[in-house]
Amino acid sequence: MDQVNIGVIGLGNVGLGTLTILAENAAEITQKLGFSLHVEAVCSPSVARKALPAGLASTFRTPDWREVVANPRIQIIAELVGGTTVAREIIESAIAAGKSVVTANKELMALEGCNLWDQAIKRGINLAMEASVAGGIPIHAVLREGISGDRVVALQGILNGTSNYILTEIERHGADFDAVLKDAQRLGYAEADPSADIDGWDARSKLAILAALAFGERITPGDIHTEGIRRISPIDFQYAHQLGHTIKLLCSARRSEQGLFLSVRPTLIPRSTILASVQGAYNAIWVRGAYGQDTFYYGRGAGPHPTGVAVVSDLMRVAREIRAGSPERVSPFAHSRLGDQRPLPVTLQKSGYYLRFRVNDRPGIIAALAGILAEKRISLDAVLQLPSESKQGLPFVITLEPAYEADVREALAQMAGLDFMVEPPLALPMERPV
Fold first, then answer.
1. How many degrees, rounded to 5, is the angle at CA 137 between CA 131 and CA 142?
2. For residue 313, what are the β-bridge partners?
């Protein structure tokens, strides 16, 4: 056999990007593999209207994914549909038919990836998902094999390009959130319904996958504390800069003696750190190992070609295995079996905090807030107030010495009821230089 046959299901941006790479880079791929990857069939409900890359014009097309899965010539299915319903049916059907699967589906892999892998290994085939997190950054391969000899103690990442683009534009231009969001939608960075991106759900799915790879635990996305970026405003960046920080939607995973802390939330990070320099729609992941110390991975987190590269690379890896007939596989989750330890509540976590208030100014406000913090045995670090012409809706900031989040939340609940408050206080954790 001088080729391995694949079927591509889903012809959106990632599907078409994958086909473009397979067609235009066919000679390079064949040279690396020693055999070719042949696109036997493609599938999409609108397949008749799709313009395929040159060289694939005669490829079999069908709107019915079942025809692709049932094709006895096809050995690998690339599931590029997305979502958790039809995509799951496609993958389970492919596994039942004894076909290996490559997917870019972060949501499904975060929810059901472990169960799907169990099904795959029982059938003696492979399940590969490099493209499910961070597009063109090969972070799965890094955690699964590249630094597998180390013990990961912490991982932080910027895993959603849309949110990072929005925060970058607010910081650069001082525009308000809604205006930048509309611009991101116009440019195609944000969907018509941007909730998955700006409310942190997309990043949460990706962190669940990376945490399983890094720490060997079966993580349910719903167990990860998640906050979005809707309340971040230009004034927050002005104060953050005064403190030598910037603001990122940070995916954070830390191993402690008690267990794992996982969160997705806007966070102040020092401008001196490498993550602070990640701008626009780029992604980045910083990993600290117990022995190898710090490593850093940076690149485009989305887009048809960066994600397509990850899909094609997985296709090549799985095709090599099919040709070699290897009975041994590295789990896509980097561990032979995952544990079931749930993340610790973030209320048990201790951190410095940035508190931003908007108040109708009058004497005694700082004293009232400081009194509430003192009751909770929380120490102030600094009070900052930029000049303002209006005393209505006046913004100012208090930073806190490291405190337990449970105590900070109790203090904030008390503060929110004070009659001079215009809106509930905004609380963001502050990362220290590492």
1. 95
2. none
Cβ atoms within 10 Å of 348's Cβ, excluding its own:
13
Query: Which residues, other chains included, contact 344 with Cβ-Cβ below 8 Å and sequence gap of 6+?
Result: 256, 258, 259, 260, 261
Mean pLDDT across the stretch 289-296? 94
CATH class held by domain 149-300: alpha beta
pLDDT of residue 302: 78
What's residue 329's pLDDT? Answer: 65
Q: Hey, where are the domains in the chain? A: 3-136+304-324, 149-300, 346-430
In the CATH hierarchy, which top-level class contains the domain 3-136+304-324?
A: alpha beta
Query: Torsions phi, psi of 299, nearest 5?
Result: 170, -175
Catalytic residue among 32, 99, 182, 206: 206
- Cα gap 234→176, rounded to integer Å: 6
Q: How confident is the model at residue 300 (pLDDT cuts 50, 70, 90)?
A: confident
Supply φ then ψ for residue 184, to 5 degrees.
-65, -35
Radius of gyration of the chain (CA): 24
Q: What is the pLDDT of residues 406-424, one digit of tens each?
A: 999 999 999 999 999 999 9
Do residues 123 and 95 lie in contact, with contact meaning Cβ atoms separated by under 8 Å? yes
CA distance 93 to 75: 13
pLDDT attached to residue 109: 93
According to DSSP, residue 241 is labeled: H
The superfamily (CATH) of domain 346-430 is ACT domain (3.30.70.260)
pLDDT band at 433 (very low <50, low <70, confident <90, very high): low
Which stretches does DSSP call E strand in 98-140?
100-103, 127-128
Q: Catalytic annotation on 206? A: yes
Chain position carrying tokens 């590492």: 434
